[in-house]
């Protein structure tokens, strides 16, 4: 799919991980020239962003902001992607909580991952990328979903023996993908871009 085929009105939202009222510490400009800054994580694809905020806005950690496209931004004045290692220590410590909240808030989307996961190669299945899911647990999930699709994390736990905290397993995988950008398979981070490039 080319960029021209993409939806031009595609709005990307992110959750603020850290708000630095006095700007970034490595910004060499004088204090009066710095704008409030911070870090955010994308809601749809968990991309990490460094952002500058409008000086007149006061934001808190957990606020939702528009990062793309620039014309749709209301409190974000600048935005660019960063890697996990670029985050402030405050943003890193908030990341797990924010990712867990997003997995809970968009439960249906993440339960559907268990319903829709497919083989990647003849020997590797998307479910096997999740921490703690081996061949036996994967087969149990596949057998159960053939009978009836899962509708909630609670139902997943009840129907698949040995699958405890299916939501936390996804959180752990998302964090692993964020922390290690050399992973061969990215299932959640940058998902949106991968789909557009296919």
Output the keywords:
198 residues; alpha+beta; 6 helices; elongated; DUF655
Kindly summarize this structure in a few lines.
This protein is of the alpha+beta class. The chain is 34% helix and 16% strand. Helix 1 packs antiparallel against helix 5.
Structure report:
This is DUF655 domain-containing protein. It comes from Haloarchaeobius amylolyticus. It holds the Pfam family DUF655. The protein has about 200 residues and is α+β, with helices and mostly antiparallel strands. It has 6 helices and 5 strands, in the order βββββαααααα. The chain has helices at about 90-105, 105-115, 135-145, 155-160, 165-180, 190-195; strands at about 10-20, 35-40, 50-55, 65-70, 75-80. It has a 5-stranded antiparallel sheet. A hairpin with a 5-residue loop joins strand 2 and strand 3. Helix 1 packs antiparallel against helix 5. The chain is elongated. The N and C termini lie close together (about 5 Å).
Beta strands, count = 5
**Rough outline:** elongated
Biggest sheet, spatial arrangement of strands: 4-1-2-3-5
Terminus-to-terminus distance: 6 Å
InterPro entries: DUF655, NA-bd_OB-fold
Protein name: DUF655 domain-containing protein
């Amino acid at each position: 799919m080319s960029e021209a085929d993409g939806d031009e009105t595609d709005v990307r939202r992110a959750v603020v991980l850290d708000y630095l009222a006095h700007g970034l510490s490595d910004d060499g400009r004088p204090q009066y020239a710095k704008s409030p800054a911070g870090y955010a994580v994308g809601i749809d694809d968990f991309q990490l962003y460094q952002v500058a905020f409008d000086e007149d806005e006061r934001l808190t950690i957990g606020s939702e902001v528009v990062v793309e496209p620039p014309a749709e931004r209301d409190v974000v004045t600048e935005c660019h992607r960063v890697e996990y290692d670029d985050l402030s220590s405050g943003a890193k410590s908030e990341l797990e909580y924010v990712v867990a909240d997003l997995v809970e808030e968009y439960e249906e989307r993440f339960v559907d991952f268990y319903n829709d996961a497919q083989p990647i190669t003849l020997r590797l299945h998307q479910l096997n990328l999740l921490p703690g899911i081996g061949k036996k647990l994967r087969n149990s999930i596949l057998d159960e979903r053939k009978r009836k699709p899962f509708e909630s994390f609670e139902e997943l736990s009840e129907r698949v023996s040995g699958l405890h905290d299916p939501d936390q397993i996804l959180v752990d995988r998302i964090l692993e993908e964020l922390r290690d950008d050399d992973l061969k398979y990215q299932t959640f981070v940058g998902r949106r871009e991968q789909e557009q490039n296919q």
